[in-house]
Amino acid sequence: MERIKHLLDLQEVMSQAKRLEDEKQKIPLEAADLKKLFEEKEAEFLAADKEFQALKTQRMEKEREIEEERDKVEKAKSKLMSIKTNKEYYAMLKEIDGTRRSNTTREDELLSLLAKYEESEKLLAERKAELDDVAGKYRERMTEITARMGSFDADIENILARKGEIAAKLDKGLVSRFETIFERREGVAIASAVNCSCTACNMNISPQLFNLLQREEKIHTCPNCNRIIYFEMPVDEEAG
After folding, report:
1. Rounded distance between C-alpha atoms, residue 130 and residue 124, angstroms
2. Whose CA is closest to 144, among 51, 1, 30?
């Protein structure tokens, strides 16, 4: 029967399309590990950058404080010449000395801060290099994946065009019914019946139905699995 042949062809192209779609869905998973590594390196870089920026702000603040205190000392020293009493003079000297001692403490703090700053700057550079390396590999992999996805799309489009050509030779209702069975029965919508048995579900069918299949007058379905079935002569009989 011509319709059976078209349905078998339809099952073949739909199976091909399904296989390609399944393979296409797996492709992004190939980059999952690399994406995870990229996200980890990005998080490490952002954490290092945050710490670096905080130390940079602290350094600038400390340098500003030191500069302001130095200005105070210089202004205080310039006032010494205009002071007329010893009491005021020694009070000003004491103030200058206190300011210098405070600044000495600030300068020691700045030196400690600079050491941390340089260490943080070095770590940030390392994290940046690691991130750039992984990002480059990730972009390369994604470019490859995009190309492969495009190739799959082209192949699927060609197969679907072939499917349309085959479906045009069949009744729309039959095609719709066939597609429903295909989805529900794991990609097998049509199967042969041999020796009163459906080869898809391996269940027996009635002799009466088997006889009807041999006449090839209309489309029949398996009463057990609801797939479309057709008569196929056993291999030994066919050889005989």
Report:
1. 10
2. 30
Model confidence pTM above 0.85: no
Q: What is the dihedral of CA 209, 215, 220, 223, to 10 degrees?
A: 10
Number of C-beta neighbours around residue 71 at 10 A: 11
CA–CA distance, 165 with 170 (Å, rounded to integer)? 10
Domains of the chain: 2-167 (1.10.287.1490), 172-239 (no CATH)
Give the residues across from 231 on adjacent strands.
Answer: 193
Find out whether 37 and 165 touch, Cβ atoms under 8 Å: no
Task: For residue 39, give the amino acid letter.
Answer: E
Q: Amino acid letter at 215? A: R
pLDDT tens-digit profile, the chain (240 residues): 799 999 999 999 999 999 999 999 888 888 888 899 999 999 999 999 999 999 999 999 888 887 887 887 777 777 776 777 778 777 777 877 787 778 788 888 889 889 999 999 999 999 999 999 999 999 998 999 889 899 999 999 999 999 999 999 999 999 999 999 999 999 999 999 999 999 999 999 999 999 999 998 899 999 999 999 999 887 655 444
What sign for the dihedral angle of Cα 45, 46, 47, 52? Answer: positive
Closest CA to 106 of 137, 146, 69: 69
The tokens 């940030």 sit on which residue? 124
CA 109 to chain centroid: 46
Which pair of tokens denotes residue 217? 């007058």
